[in-house]
User: Fold Protein-methionine-sulfoxide reductase catalytic subunit MsrP from Cognatishimia maritima.
Amino acid sequence: MAHRWKNNLTRSDVTPHDIYLNRRQLLGGAAGLGLATLAGGKAQASELEPNSWEEIISYNNFYEFGTGKGDPAQHAHRLTTSPWTVTIDGMVDRPGDYKFDEIMAAMTIEERIYRFRCVEAWSMVIPWNGFELKDLLDLAGVQESAKYVAFETLYRPEEMVGQRFGTLDWPYVEGLRLDEAMHPLTLMATGIYGKTIPNQNGAPLRLVVPWKYGFKSIKSIVKITLTDKQPPTSWNKALGREYGFYSNVNPEVDHPRWSQATERRIGGGLFAKRIPTLMFNGYEKEVASLYEGMDLRRFY
Ligand SMILES: Nc1nc2c(c(=O)[nH]1)N[C@H]1C(S)=C(S)[C@@H](COP(=O)(O)O)O[C@H]1N2
Ligand SMILES: [Mo]
Assistant:
């Protein structure tokens, strides 16, 4: 395949790890005592304080390695992520198997500190490194007819021990509307805290859609398909009444079995108050226009 790669890799955009460590230390007692949810300015300042590396890599959902929060950290070391190719097909001008290294050479890696809100009502703040999904889709050349993007995770039960059980219908699949996929907030993450993304977080590349519940942010992607039909998604297939295609974070639309009005920030400490969940996870200004005129209760 003859690709013409843009050559604008700027790894120096990555902010060094120790800046965050220092900021955490500076924050001092308040965060440690779980008082980071005080009203007013203080809450604003600490609200985007990243979780620690240890928290981010030890409390995970990645059912390919088991359903416990500690299972991915325990089992994901068995996954081999090199070599890795991402098949991009469907309604694109340049379909093919894109080598991960070639993708990296073509992309601009930047840091994005995003809130991350799981549908289970816990959250973190994660300093991702990655590139905009739009840049990858542009590389493949999205055709006029495409309306949706479908994503697929690796299926390799020899290494992904959770895939030996029928917890979900493997491989894990997800999807976005094309305008959601092209949105500048939509990231393909390849790192955290300036380091290569750990296997349990979805190495070597995973989607991050910060205004949607975490399960939309599919990990360890091997296939991206441009299509004109809304693609099936794993959690919708498993429990369609509870998990819709859109899955936008919305404090006003509860899960059938629990409230989505508040969330527990991981690492907040034993006495931390739950914090209010923000519309579109705090990205309302950036993304609300994508859903203008849509009934968000119906399109959950
Ligand atoms: N392939 C795959 N992707 C996945 C999942 C999964 O089980 N398999 N879990 C999702 C859920 S429910 C969440 S909350 C996030 C968790 O990402 P993290 O472990 O990096 O915080 O990954 C999402 N992506
Ligand atoms: Mo989740």
Remarks:
- The mean pLDDT is 88.
